């Protein structure tokens, strides 16, 4: 009895499990809802989706562009890539769109506020009909016959958008005279049909890209399943199918790997890409070139030359420029480009509306009128690829080769002469000159070897540059290449043979340091790598010359912008705050990982192409004045940034840097130099002025008028507060750099209130004295107060 009961229970359990299994398969089949039958609807509000049998593609309504327009789209389930969309000129209402197949066989999209979109309307009502999303990504409407076959009534593949997927055709259907072609978007986020089309040309049997009807690219004839002008990488996995008969002329491809997602997409700029690389680049076709399948055409304006191309840059213009606007909203990127190209005054353009239509043209400008910044806007600049780099590079190469050859010959001759003792030096001067040449030749050979070795290692170590390559890079330290006169000697811009831009600092010949110490010192500096520090790339030692090679900073230094009312506008508050943060990060890094002396001042903060700040000249004090460090009379720095303990006692610590940072921070907020003139009745320095306004609760008066529109009052308040904490008289009261970083990033509440700042002098005491000595005009003045005696004029200004 008992056994029987158990068996019975087991049987029940088993059958229950079977039932479960059956159910789950059932549900699975149900879930694979890949078709619409007459009377069915697909409602946007239900977020209902049709997915193909294997789940590769799905059909639904999706948000597609800047206008928040909805379209019915087929997308790949793997990567959500849209491969097809319903009529791009007719968006639907997102909140009410319904796709339906009604009982008379009409396939349509309806929404409350818009005209219905009829995808298929049968000649006479039919009922035995089904719309299915296939695993190829094709959405098909079929009539089912009782004999088991079906006929195709409509398919999405007949209306390609900008994407070609396997088995989708390009070409022409002769029976219906219907053309299959891809048409690009109008702009990146604007799906309406744009300027470029990809077509199959049945006579020549090749693919062509047209821009507004004009052929600009051809693939070349198909040979051995390969098109001449499509890169091999893009074709490797493809098998092309060409159909050419009375019914149709078509091109399509399939992939050798069925599972892989594969598509070609034609972009609004005329590129075809497959997600991994380019298939075709009609954007590089300017009419003068035939490379990569580009087509030559006749009507190139006389003012445009081979090599002229438009390049995308991000940033903003420094001045109000001579511009003109094309407000026609049917103009997209490539139309603007074509307009600018044919107008000889135009050398840059950008889209006018935020949705990417319309154009703004810039006339008579050059890159010098432009500041690069990744947070800026995109512009397309006309540049010439041939004269810009390749040309100069070639000449540098030729020059270098010629110079080397000449030197080798000279050396050989001299060696020969010396050996045979036939060469008699007439005077000492000439002898020295010859010896110099010998030295140069041998020296550059050995350092060329070193260069090579260092390159191989690719380490962070100090790279030694040879003198000839530095000379070549800077055109022999020519005055055109000079960037400025830094504290330690002139700085030049250079371009290495590799095309890399560098800054070359030629130290004034006052260092008494030996080569080994010099190199050791530089190695330490080289090892410091942080995005807010100017990277030292290497050095060159040539006889008495000491040359430092740095990464090149295209946007000059902070003071260039800060203390100029026009350029000050280029640094809005967001950028300034980013700069403050960057400097604090760089300084924190230096405090953590080095004992190097830092000279912090606005002219030592360099800006890269994205306006990121980078501290320069750290560690220079040691190298430059090795023996004079102990000499307190000679202080490398700039007054205004120097802490009181440094000025008076020569005591230098990280808190002195904090002091300088505070001054710099207040300068960035106020856009004024720390030493200047602050009101006739209040000849205070900037710090004192700030302190007074702070106490009066009027610190917003300090803000640079250039950023009046853009500043965030809370952030500014916070910055001024931090700045005042940094410039407190007693070093111990000042926060550390890590405190500052966390205060800036809002992580920690600022609790302490700033005490009296350094060099704060009351209003009355110095009034008469200063006004008689002309505080504003003279930067070296004697300030005498009852508590401190500062004699700035005794400080040797080696660096300002
Ligand atoms: C398939 O989708 C249609 C439309 O949303 C719906 O009416 C139908 O019930 C679904 N069928 C299954 C088996 O889920
Ligand atoms: C979908 O929309 C149609 C038409 O508006 C409506 O008749 C139908 O009830 C809706 N279906 C669902 C499941 O909401
Ligand atoms: C199907 O839709 C069409 C067009 O909207 C309409 O004319 C026709 O009456 C509809 N048929 C049915 C059975 O609802
Ligand atoms: C099936 O029936 C349809 C319509 O009745 C017809 O057009 C088609 O030729 C038939 N197919 C076959 C294989 O019999
Ligand atoms: C801008 O350029 C156009 C044509 O190049 C010229 O006619 C016009 O005077 C210029 N406008 C200004 C304000 O410079
Ligand atoms: C806008 O440009 C298109 C194409 O170039 C042109 O057909 C149309 O007439 C223009 N519209 C206006 C208002 O100028
Ligand atoms: C693009 O933006 C402009 C200006 O806002 C507008 O007039 C135009 O209709 C938009 N174009 C499209 C296709 O939405
Ligand atoms: C743009 O730069 C050029 C020098 O390259 C200069 O001559 C011209 O005046 C600048 N234009 C403006 C508007 O500043």
* The CATH topology of the largest domain: Transferase(Phosphotransferase), domain 1
- Poorly predicted spans: 13-32, 389-394, 418-459, 626-637, 677-683, 762-800
Q: Please count the helical segments.
A: 16
Number of domains: 5
What would the average pLDDT be, to the nearest integer?
A: 77
CATH architecture term of the largest domain = Orthogonal Bundle
Label the overall shape: elongated
State the CATH superfamily name of the largest domain.
Answer: Transferase(Phosphotransferase) domain 1
Structure description:
There is one protein chain. The protein has 800 residues and is α+β, with helices and mostly antiparallel strands. It folds into 5 domains: 28-159, Bulb-type lectin domain (Agglutinin, subunit A); 301-384, 3-Layer(bba) Sandwich (Hepatocyte Growth Factor); 389-432; 447-551, Phosphorylase Kinase, domain 1 (2-Layer Sandwich); 558-794, Transferase(Phosphotransferase) domain 1 (Transferase(Phosphotransferase), domain 1). 28% of the residues lie in helices and 26% in strands. It contains 16 helices and 42 strands. Helix 9 packs antiparallel against helix 12 (654-670), helix 9 (573-593) packs antiparallel against helix 15 and helix 12 packs antiparallel against helix 14. The structure holds 2-acetamido-2-deoxy-beta-D-glucopyranose (NAG) (8 copies). Residues 322, 345, 363 line the site of one 2-acetamido-2-deoxy-beta-D-glucopyranose. GO terms for molecular function: ATP binding; protein serine kinase activity; protein serine/threonine kinase activity. Residues 33-154 form the Bulb-type lectin domain. Its EC number is 2.7.11.1.
